[in-house]
Known about the structure:
The protein is an alpha/beta fold. It has helices at residues 3-11, 18-29, 35-48, 52-63, 91-100, 120-124, 136-146, 159-169, 177-190, 211-227, 249-260, 267-282, 289-301, 304-315, 351-360, 402-415, and strands at residues 79-83, 106-110, 148-152, 195-202, 231-238, 246-247, 334-339, 344-349, 377-380, 387-388, 393-399, 416-419, 429-433.
Amino acid sequence: MNIVDLIIKKRNGGELTTDEINYFIKGVTDKSLPDYQISAMLMAIFFRSLSPQETADLTLAMVHSGTTLDLSEINGIKVDKHSTGGVADTTTLILAPLVASLGLKVIKMSGRGLGHSGGTIDKLESIPGYNTDLSTQQAIKQVNNIGLAIIGQTSDLTPADKYLYALRDVTGTVDSIPLIASSIMSKKLAGGSDAIVLDVKVGNGAFMQDITQARQLAKAMVEIGNSLNKKTVALITAMDRPLGNNIGNSLEVEEAINVLKGKVKGRLKDVVLELGAHMLVLGKITNNLETARNMLNENIANGKGLDKFKELITAQGGNPHVCDDLSLLPQPTEKFTVTAKKSGIISQMDTAKIGRASVALGAGRTYKGEKIDLSAGIIMNKTVGDAVQQGDKIAELYASDIDKCNIAADILNESIEISNVEKKPLPTILEVIE
Ligand code: URA
């Protein structure tokens, strides 16, 4: 087999065989293929796309490029969850303990922030002492003890995806539906769970900007999962405005705790309930979505979800008292209020830009490995559709450096459109693809 022939075949719109895709991924994994040929293949895929069979083959080849988790030591159905990423999306921190408090076994591998969107591992590290770096065996033991572990992704999982992702990032080939679908699903399948609930975000803070693209991505991932015998459900949810009110690591932990305490309602909680209900049904805790929603609400009201979160924090070396005393979370030294420049209705938000304002405050990275400020971020006081008077508070910025607040305030002001025309925001949950 010759890689040049395969690139030409794909460039001309041909369909690669399973063996040809395996050959390509083997060359990526053992580094026998140079970056220029891998990049040429990625660009050919970007323009010519992949058939469902090719997408499944690519996914499996990436799964087998590294180790896969064997979760057979954990009794019961293990259900994983993945979000395609957004702003103020702290669902995992609420959802994982909540479903675990109802008996579902959850072993969740999460990532760090990427671009404008935050990452669960960074958020958890704002809890003093919390260790995200458990071995697989430690995580399995913990799930057997308390039903739940949230850890960083181990480095030997899907190395081909890691390599391809880094190349895609710098060759203009990230936003290809089969490449995104196979990238996400390879990690989920290698993670070893029995079933998967996907949260595919749509809107200007997401990879997928419109519902047609989001539906295609959701269908591609559901098809991959189901074709490989992992029951997969995808929810398409809105990311045309921040999901919660808080953006930034310790601020999102704070909001997660407040949702678990029943103090915060709204869109973030709605998405948690919907994803959680599907997880409970896939995990056969109940066979009815409405019952599942009620169970989740009940474990918010009776505090069992919050207790499970405290158990998780304790098991991973963190200080569970943060749940009772939020001032134990990292605290910023600077606070800055952003007010409405004019009166009207908030007709639109550039959500990715709001995420970038949070990065400018220090909550995210601008280069690989950058140290972030866990206390930095934004609390949004207004959202799309709200009426404002000139001078009303729109957001509060937090950082350890006032210059950063000034820069972020400019970015935030640019990202919020105030007009006299009311535009309808997207419904929070748009579709369920099964
Ligand atoms: N997230 C991933 O893990 N992979 C992609 O390709 C895009 C988002």
